[in-house]
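Figure S4 source data
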Amino acid sequence: METQDQSEILGRQRSLRQFAVSQLVLAVGATCCYLGLWVTTGIWHAGVLVVVCLLYTIGAVVVYLLAGRGYLGAPIALNCVLLVAATFANAVLAPGLLPLLVLLPILTLAIALPFVSGRAMVALSAAVVIETGLLGVIGMYTRWFEPLPTNALQLLIAIVTPTAASMIVILLLQYGSRLRASMAATHAANSELRALRDGLERQVSERTAALQEALVEVEARSAEQARLLAENVQQRDTLRELSVPILPLPSRALVMPLIGALDTQRIAQAQTRALEEIVQTRAKHLILDITGVPVVDTQVAQGLVQIVQAARLLGATVVLAGIRPEVAQSLVGLGVSLGEVVTRATLEDGVAYTLERR
């Protein structure tokens, strides 16, 4: 952005210097014409016009130098002042040049147009309109000095007209170059915006595709997790059933071998499984084999008693089998009373008891 601004400022300085050169050429030409007219005719106000043109020439040189040093405001102001002063001096001293002099205020406005905007431009436009009106009044209704000879006036018009036209052409070329540069900058900016838009669309498409892939992956992982969870639940149910298995016997009896350490959860599972099987099979006997239980403490004993009592309420007799000597000593040491629970030393004895009671 800074580089672009610097380039624009340099372009304005270059345009101002080019216009100063054209003014310098016009001033030198007008000076030579007025000087020749003064020498050949001896009209004194032609000499005054020579002085005016010399001052205008010096001012054009100053404008050129200031523009070359990087100034813009001061050269523009000086240029406008020079054009206004030269225009009024020529209107008073050589009213026959009025058709050409009317163009100079418009040139003043055209010169300042790239550098002035807003209220300043409105004020300058109003000043140009007023100046043009004053020039018309001065050129038509004032005759303070002897008019220039017709031949000299025609010569001045023949010289000044193409020079003024050249200045206008230079301004038009500068505006055209500036317009083309602006259009090129606009085109470049539009191209950059289109490239950015295409890049953003491409990024959005890529990110959308990545999000869709991530969503598909998340859905796949969710389905896999759901499947694993279902398998886990199934395996847990299987393990629960295997942890408290129940084996049916022909004599309407059930055998529940308990293996491993018993905690509150396993005892509750054993009670639930035993009661469900008793109801479903209408069993009359339930053999609890605790041969594989390493330790029977107060909690385990109370849980077994609860299973016995619950099964008895359903009309089934519970036989506690597989009581090893160390388990018996542990129960006695704990002071646990099994009450009316039927006990047998081995599973075979328990099965034999149920066969006797069928």
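Figure S5 source data
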Amino acid sequence: MKKKLSYLILETGEIYTGVGYGGEVNVIGELVFNTSMTGYQEVITDPSYKGQIITFTYPHIGNIGTCNNDNESNQTWLKAVITREVPTKPSNWKSEKSFEEYLVDNNLLGLAEIDTRKLVKQIRDYGNVIGMVVRDKIEQQDALNQIFEYKNNHLDRNSLFSSAGRIQQISDYNKNNKSTKLHVAVIDFGCKITILNMLEKFNCKITTFNSDCSFNKVKHLKPDAVILSNGPGNPESYTRAIAFIKDIIREQIPILGICLGHQLLGIALGAKIEKLQFGHHGINHPVKDLTTNKVFITSQNHNYVIDKVTLPSTISVTYISLFDNNIQGFTHNEHPFVGFQGHPEGGPGPIDIQDNIVEKFLNKVCSIKKTSYIT
């Protein structure tokens, strides 16, 4: 690969000089860091990262190439990828394209050979910052003007997810599985394919809906349960979705919220949201089950959490993060409304909590229907 000087300019005025690869574009986004040591392709295609620039802390990103089966959606959603080293020639029998070829095909910018440890420390100490990745030279003041214009006028809008147009691609996900026991409606706020694979594994009939669908459209199909998917952005900005979830709550249809869906469900039930300084992004996050005291290692990807002080008395906390003691899961005391902040489907990452969250919820729905359990 021909090396070409490229730059990361932060809103603080600091400039990192590195080597550009992948797409030939200049981009602005919110910087986050991810501690995953594997699963980089699943991370890059996760819609929850829409509008962000990912800095990978693990140095060997790209060394196993890419393959279509590892995608979490049919496109990349983030703005750019920052790695310690320029990806080398892949060594993996499954690889279909090198990491750089994959970035070029998706017009996604890569930046390498900067001090990623220093950058991560800066994000950790000062919180997520807005940055601009530049493939060509640009005047620092011009870059800062663009960064602040983006921050003031486009940040929230560009980080929200619209599933319009995407829904047709996954709405008929069920492959005529005649052994289904439950009909699950999945509300697509940026749903990962792994969530649909997980529900199919549990023999669910799956119908997906746009994130801005009407409640009557969902109610008409009489689903046994509703899954609120993961997704990007500030949950408080999804005002229409929150009103929609309140309608589901009033009908007492069982609900499982995952990641963003967990936060939206919490808001709909009366809780408030707070933003973390630098978020949770990785596949090695320990979560404690407060019922059994068992600890699970989970996949995490979020910048916001439910403020535990604002929880209504009708909600009980079921899981907490052992990193910062924030809420990782809750259940309603009277109705089958369950939220989990992490990713029980584990794509990428561990799946040991999948049975505790998803299977337990689906079996609860089966008991309400007075039918046999999922497994």
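The chain is about 25% helix and 30% strand. The CA atoms of residues 255 and 337 lie 5 Å apart.
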